[in-house]
Amino acid sequence: MGAVVQYQSRQMKNPATREFTRSYKAHNARVRYGTMTKAEFTTWSKEARAKRADCVAGKLPLEDFVAWLDSDKQR
Predict the structure, then answer these.
(1) What's the pLDDT tens digit per position in 1-59?
(2) DSSP label at residue 13
(3) How far is CA 74 from CA 10, 42, 51, in A?
(4) Of these four, 3, 9, 19, 20, which has the most CB atoms within 10 Å of its CB?
(5) Are 11 and 17 in contact (CB under 8 A)?
(6) 15 Cβ partners below 8 Å, 6+ apart?
(7) pTM of the entire structure?
(8) Residue 73: what pLDDT?
(9) Pairwise CA distance, residues 75 & 73, whole Å
C-alpha cells in the first residue's frame, strides 16, 4: 500500500495530472448522480487522457489544457 501512496504523491506533483484527476473525479460524479451517461463519460475520458498526454509531453500548454477541462464545468 505504501508504494501506491508514494506513486500517487509523485504523480500529483505534475500540475497536468493534478488538474486531470480533479476533473476526472468531477465527471465521474456526474455519472453517479445521473447528469452524464457512462458513454459520454467514456468519450470525455479518452479525449482528456489524450490531451493530458500532450500536455505532459509539452505539445499543449497547461493553461489551454486547464481551460479545456473547465470548459464544460457545471455550476
Answers:
(1) 789 888 888 888 889 999 999 999 999 999 999 999 999 999 999 999 999 999 999 99
(2) T
(3) 29, 18, 20
(4) 20
(5) yes
(6) 62
(7) 0.83
(8) 77
(9) 7
Distance from C-alpha of 60 to C-alpha of 3, rounded to nearest angstrom: 30
Contact between 10 and 21 under an 8 Å Cβ cutoff? The reply is no
The one-letter code for the residue type at 19 is E
Q: Is the pLDDT of residue 75 over 60?
A: no
Contact 50, 68 (CB under 8 A): no
Extract the C-alpha cell encoding 36.
452524464
Question: Average pLDDT in the 46-75 region?
Answer: 92
What counts of helices (H) and strands (E) characterise the chain? Answer: 4, 0
| 45-48 own/partner pairs: CB under 8 Å, 24+ apart | 48/20, 48/23, 48/24
C-alpha cell at 58: 509539452
Distance of CA 67 to the CA centre of its chain: 12
